[in-house]
Amino acid sequence: MKILSVIGARPQFIKAALLSKEIRKYHEEILVHTGQHYNEEMSDIFFEQLDIPQPSYNLGVGSGTHGYQTGHMIIELEKVLLREMPDFVLIYGDTNSTVSASLAAVKLHIPVGHVEAGLRNFDLNIPEEVNRLVADHISTLLFAPTETAVDNLANEGLSDKTFLTGDVMYDILLRSLDVSEKQSGIMTELGLRDKDYILATIHRPDNTDNSDNLKNIIKAFETCGENVVVPLHPRTLKEMTKQNIKVESDHLKIITPLGYMDFLKLLHHAKKVITDSGGVQKESYLLKIPCITIYESTSWIETVRDGWNILAKPDVEDIMDKIRNFNPSGKQGNYFGDGHSCERIVEIINQYLNTRS
């Protein structure tokens, strides 16, 4: 049968890397790249490093407001769906690509499967929260990565289409860690030593579009007394330029966005991580790297509950306090599966499609 998979942003490329290969053992896959992340550092390098099949379609939507992106994607995805008429559509995560694909498919009566369903921040001011809610409620099959996600979906009356599968990002991390250690020379290139630096990523609008917040975050990085490495997201660079924020410390190293293998190598050897990315919070937890999340909430509450992730305000003193004093060492739970989530998801899809044929 024909499965159409929709991806558009860095985390989705990573999630699709193994799952696409598993799908192609049984089905014809049509891979659609919406172009939400579209430059070499945020897109092309992931396809190369993770050996992801080249997309059948690249919609080239690019950046823009939420309304522009979502509307443009729905229009272009509908054209592709009408041309291909797949038996099933697969969506990932919580981006505008996710919600656009779910809406376009459902209106054409094509069943949808949502990978990484059930995550919740319980805050509708977060755009990703809106995308998750819409996608989960109109999808046909919900692939929940954790028991917490299963519970969230149950509380919304969605248990009958929910499946606990484990986390596909855990699958790819397990298979990529040794490869990144052997292949990546990023630490030598940057002159870094094991556990002698903090790795930071900042990209969410609440942290970048607010001038005070972004200035506070950069100042904390500059004055914390630690070496801080920041692979800078294009939207963060744009805002720093717009707000005339300049780096004035030798301890803060700003670099271009990294491919998966280089980023994984830096993450694995970091002393701590500072981020506002959901995926990085989870990867940090899995690698037992203390994580400071600059955000009001997190959808990966297991990482906070086990004491390996702590929330911080976009405030200089609060960030510096967490850098100095957050030093977890407790045990971790097994929340994210057994490394075989991709096989489990495809098995569920196969069973569903077989009942419809």
Instruction: Estimate percent helicity.
Output: 40-55%
The counted number of beta strands is: 13
Share of β-strand residues: 15-25%
Q: Which fold name corresponds to the CATH topology of the largest domain?
A: Rossmann fold
| H and E order | EHEHEHEHEHEHEHHEHHEHEHEHEHEHH
Features:
Rossmann fold; 2 domains; 357 residues; six-stranded parallel beta sheet; alpha/beta
3D structure, described in words:
There is one protein chain. This protein is an alpha/beta fold. The protein folds into two domains: 2-167 and 337-356, Glycogen Phosphorylase B (Rossmann fold), CATH 3.40.50.2000; 177-325, Rossmann fold. It is 48% helix and 15% strand. The strands form two sheets. The chain has a seven-stranded parallel β-sheet with strand order 3-2-1-4-5-6-7, with helices on both faces. The chain has a six-stranded parallel β-sheet with strand order 10-9-8-11-12-13, sandwiched between helices. Helix 1 links the parallel strand 1 (2-7) and strand 2. Helix 1 (10-23) runs parallel beside helix 2 (40-49), helix 1 (10-23) crosses helix 7 and helix 3 crosses helix 4. The longest helix is centred in the first third of the chain and has 19 residues, at 66-84. It is globular, with a radius of gyration of 20 Å. The termini are close together. The model has no long low-confidence stretch (mean pLDDT 94).
